[in-house]
Amino acid sequence: MNPLPIIRDAFYFFTRNLGAITRICLPLIMLESLAQTVLFCVSTSDHSPIYSMLITMAMYPLYTGALIIYMAARSSGDTPPLANVLPLTLRIWPRFAVLTALTNLLFLLGAKLMLLPGIYVLVKLAFAEYLLVVRSASPLAAMRDSFNMTNGHFLRVLLCTMLVVVPLWVLQAVSFGVAGEEEVQMSEALVVFLIQTGTSFVALFSSVVGFRLFMVIADETAHG
């Protein structure tokens, strides 16, 4: 039940592999941040949230998928050539993009109803991304299997998720407060870009924590 060993192991992995994670994910994150910065500078507030979500749904599966592929290889004792990670990610991008859209939609619907349904969906779908990438599941199968896999582990997943996600939400809220003005002057574009890049890169740690928890529960299930 104690989430601290999971977070400690994830932090160890993240720091030990920071160079490889940076080379794999940072260029894609910077591309997303550039698109978001241009959007902030030129788009009207009426359309900005929609376009921003589309950019995220296009780019998030790329760098998150690449990170999961790398973590899965390292957990098996392999060190994949970094040049091979992106082509593998592109193969799963269509399925990952569909999964991202579905999970975001369910989370938003749950959050619209009440906060608790949104948190419930967040926890029950915590392993969907890893199931899609590691076990080649379809988006719907990954969501179904994540619901099943978290049975009996809800509080454990909730604690790990909240300990990592809540600080990220606070960080993102502060950054969006700086970057989310109705009009962003061109002189401020670099600051917006750096904030977007920094928050997205730090958010990768939540994926590392989730993957570590996924592997632990999968191992316990296999030997249970």
UniProtKB/TrEMBL annotation:
It comes from the Bacteria. Keywords: Membrane, Transmembrane, Transmembrane helix. The chain crosses the membrane at residues 20-42, 54-72, 92-111, 118-134, 154-178, 190-218. Signal peptide: none annotated. This is Membrane protein.
